[in-house]
Amino acid sequence: MESLTVKWKHSIVYLTFIYAILYLLHTNLRLDNRPIRLKKWPHLPLRFRHDGTFKILQVADMHFGTGVLTSCRDVLPSEFPYCSDLNTTRFLKTLIQLEKPDFIAFTGDNIFGPSTTDAAESLLGAFGPVMESGLPWAAVLGNHDQESTMTREELMSFISLLDCSVSQTNPPSIDIDGFGNYNLGVYGAPGSHLANSSILNLFFLDSGDRETVQGVRTYGWIKESQLHWLRSVSQGLQGQNQEFNYITENLPVATSPALAFFHIPIPEVRQLYYQKIIGQFREGVACSSVNSGVLKTLVSIKDVKAVFLGHDHTNDFCGNLEGIWFCYGGGFGYHGYGRAGLPRRARIILAELRKGDMAWMGVERIKTWKRLDDENLSKIDEQVLWEFQPSR
What we know:
Layout: H1 2-26, E1 30-31, E2 34-35, E3 53-59, H2 85-99, E4 103-107, H3 119-133, E5 137-140, H4 152-160, E6 182-187, E7 198-204, E8 210-213, E9 216-219, H5 224-248, E10 258-261, E11 277-278, H6 294-301, E12 304-309, E13 318-321, E14 324-328, E15 345-355, E16 360-372, E17 379-387
Helix pairs in contact: 2-3, 5-6
């Protein structure tokens, strides 16, 4: 009899537990009167359009604070009374509508830590327009993002969970410096023999924030563990290219080009002051005192054709170092420093496929230009960064 009583009690507990689960499901899993919502994903994988193009909007240095209460810096006196973070938001929404990008890359200092007491709320405000757009996007950190209430690891983890973000905290199961080192592949056009292959690779790297070297403060730099990862991934991707060449035989595929995105420029960018550039060199290059060999690595792996930077807001030039273009995005955000009368700006990157007899082939050309936040949303400094050269 006692055994039956115990079993009966266990049954009651079990049924109560089942009922509680069903109740939670029925009420949409409401906790604290708020429904749990799942992350919204964009259409994946990243892919070239039917017309053989893939367009990237680079947004550098938003320096977002708290929204309407965060004032602008370095604008004309007539603009200042009504200028806030909302000008940054408006510019981002306008460019999304105008350029209709396939992907948006944020290259650091997305928020300005000292101007917000809630990093999460600031991030939601900064990335709000792109989340609403439904477009895929990714970000790296700058040197100011972590100066509020979240560490760099927490920031990248939070960013990776936002709607339509394809950002990653780091490669899984790899010991690597920094947070926000990852790669994304862009697949061939629908219906082509490359529709299931990545033909444009996007590398994202954490260039750090501040470091102390021999007692002297300097900016961060990309570490050897990150360069080792970059070399390994690049080698693996090029190996896949060769394997695909073997399979398709009479449909040869050249090594897929790659682009890299990080915040702080490398020391060699200073050399471009003495060379021909496209755009303007308006301020000194604020980089690390440590040269970790990033340029040497990029030259050796051979697939990276251009690097896109932030950090120095009034620089907006592209210059070539040993066959690789280094391009500033130009200051985007109104709470970041700039120059009064100099419009905020963004960079557009367009990759175009070459046309085969029957379908789209690999990447033929990579171009770039800038858009200004002026009355005409002026398009300036259009240039070709790279073109496919058939082997002879």
